From TrEMBL:
PANTHER family: CHROMOSOME-PARTITIONING PROTEIN PARB-RELATED. NCBIfam families: parB_part. This is Nucleoid occlusion protein. One of its GO terms (cellular component) is chromosome. SMART domains: ParB (SM00470). One of its GO terms (molecular function) is DNA binding. It comes from Coprococcus eutactus. Keywords: Chromosome partition.
Amino acid sequence: MARSRETKIELTAYDDLFQTDESREEAKLSKIRDIPISEIDEFPDHPFKVLMDEDMEQLVESIKRNGVMTPATVRLKEDGRYELISGHRRKKACELAGLETLKCEVKELTRDEAIIVMVESNLQRSVILPSEKAFAYKMRLEAMKRQAGRPPKENASPLATNLSKGRSDEELGELVGESKDQIRRYIRLTELVPEILQMVDERQIAFRPAVEVSYLTEEQQYTLLEAMEYNDATPSLAQAIKMKKYNQDGKLTSEVIQSIMEEEKPNQKEKPAFRDERITKLIPKTVPRGQETDFVVKALEFYNRHLQRNKAHER
């Protein structure tokens, strides 16, 4: 009868059996914790605005009732503080709700990886202003170009490895659903002075003319602002292209800008002769449009004759 032998079998732990090296690494790097808001810094040059609107009010109420459902994303900085990558609205809502901590997922990311994640997460918003897209696309494209020229680190995250393969504005366009030309047009908006860029956001000036205006110098753009205010009009695409051409030829002066802005546009409504309410409210509504100046001149002539008659009687 054969002697029974004891065989010692070591079983692999369940978690180890089904985890890959990548998931183990991710588990170590990605941790969710409540972090004091006072220790979280804003993302440098964050291009997306946090609006105090009705959506924010609803978010504040939701957080008061249920807390933060989706963690924000942060990375640990060298000084021991945290940098907010995504979740700027959630952070502001927590502050308004009177909370002292924010539920966060801590990720180990390089500066360029953080930029790309920040832009990608915010582009999921339903409403994005042209200025937000402009600076976001610029930041992301610059980060992608830097990553493309950098060899992947040993044991780098999948995100870093993918980025190191090299991408261009064409690939960025594919990622965000825009053509490469449209990506370039948005980035051109970052060359606008703040006042004109705000007009683009507020739809006071059309997108394509604004792109052409971006090729003017800062001084020329402020001259254009004055001309727009004086003429109560914004440049059409044809006018913006004309100014850009004059600028390239070194012939765009203040007088030329004013002259171009005074040009009549197709289907343009006739501008009021006077903008000062002190004058317009005294002009009867029965005066035909376009004859306001004649009415005011005749009124002044009548008033001057009245003054002369009074002086004659005083003698």
